[in-house]
Amino acid sequence: MTDASPQQNPPELGAESPSVFAVEARTVAPLLVGSMEAVARSRLHTVSVTSVLAEVAELLSSAQISVVVVCNGAGSPLGTLTETVLIQRLGWGLSDFFTTLAGDVMTREFVVCAPEDLLSDVMTMMHQRGLIHVLLVNAQGTLLGVVNARDGLRVLLAAGNHQEALLRNYVMGVGYQ
């Protein structure tokens, strides 16, 4: 983190600064991204670079996530395709549904995180960059899943609710349950 210089403009009223989000995210017990690996794995949908956009569209329409990961033959991520990119390319007439390959239109820039990363740090980074999805990979670069911002927030909220319940029970003399 860098210190704020006195010459910076104050944030707009009602605007949430990234540092506020970071502080709020850290108020719950430190959770690792790996704690939500099962959910991230359930969000993972992959296609090859030679898949046509009709296959991608079919996968997106049956999935509960708006991104597919384009992988090479070894299963390593090469890029992503979102519903938004697919709709834009088709709407602008830049792609043909049955001949355009996923590898030709995928977004090659993507962000990854590791199971040992703090979930609060990943969620803060996603918030700061305006990301909805981050790829979960292990130390060898093997694709493990897709971390969705909504899923991450649910995990952090559940952890906060659990800590609140423990504190309430302690204060009320019930003890830990």
Quick summary:
The chain is an alpha/beta fold and 177 residues long.
Describe the structure.
- The chain is α/β, with parallel strands linked by helices and 177 residues long.
- Helices cover 40% and strands 15% of the residues.
- It has 7 helices and 6 strands.
- It has helices spanning 18-25, 37-42, 53-62, 83-91, 102-105, 119-129, 149-171, and strands at residues 46-48, 67-71, 77-82, 112-113, 133-137, 143-148.
- The protein has a 3-stranded mixed beta sheet.
- Helix 6 packs across helix 7.
- The longest helix has 23 residues, at 149-171.
- The radius of gyration is 20 Å and the shape is elongated.
- The relative contact order is 0.18.
Please outline the helices and strands.
Elements (H helix, E strand, L loop, with lengths): L17 H8 L11 H6 L3 E3 L4 H10 L4 E5 L5 E6 H9 L10 H4 L6 E2 L5 H11 L3 E5 L5 E6 H23 L6
Parallel strand pairs: 1-2, 4-5
Antiparallel strand pairs: 2-3, 5-6
Helix pairs in contact: 1-6, 6-7
